[in-house]
Design brief:
single chain, mainly alpha, Four Helix Bundle (Hemerythrin (Met), subunit A), 3 strands, globular
Length: 144
């Protein structure tokens, strides 16, 4: 099995454990942020696997290359849009100046003082998309 896929499985398992086991016990918003990062890492590792051997210069070109390659591998536009939305949300979180916990969510505050929430429900939905994507990538690996 490809090392990228093995690492993607490992990071997805970590995110899953954080969301379904650790967070309900500890109830700390930082765990939600960390789980979000692990989901993003899983998606990026799968994208790297799909793009293996293809040249891409920067992150914008990389994702455009992925969109082209995804059509070759039978990924629907709906699936790629979901993945794109997750990765864009993670990028906005990385650029945000402040994060804090409030009740059952983590709050991301942007420079313009707008906020976005990271909730358990959102992460459960995102982890399901990441699992679907990883399963498709495993099929791609078995049937190149």
């Amino acid at each position: 099995m490809d090392p990228k896929i093995e690492e993607a499985k490992k990071t997805l398992k970590i995110a899953d454990h954080m969301i379904y086991v650790t967070y309900p016990v500890i109830r700390e918003g930082r765990i939600l942020i960390k789980a979000l990062d692990e989901i993003g890492k899983t998606i990026n590792l799968c994208i790297d696997f799909i793009l293996r051997g293809k040249k891409h210069i920067d992150s914008k070109t990389r994702f455009e290359d992925f969109l082209k390659a995804s059509k070759e591998y039978g990924l629907s536009e709906n699936q790629t849009n979901k993945l794109s939305n997750i990765l864009e949300f993670i990028e906005r979180r990385r650029k945000s100046p402040m994060e804090f916990s409030r009740k059952d969510k983590a709050v991301i505050m942007h420079w313009d003082l707008n906020t976005e929430n990271v909730t358990v429900e959102m992460l459960k939905e995102n982890i399901n998309y990441a699992k679907e994507f990883l399963e498709k990538v495993e099929i791609i690996e078995k049937n190149p």
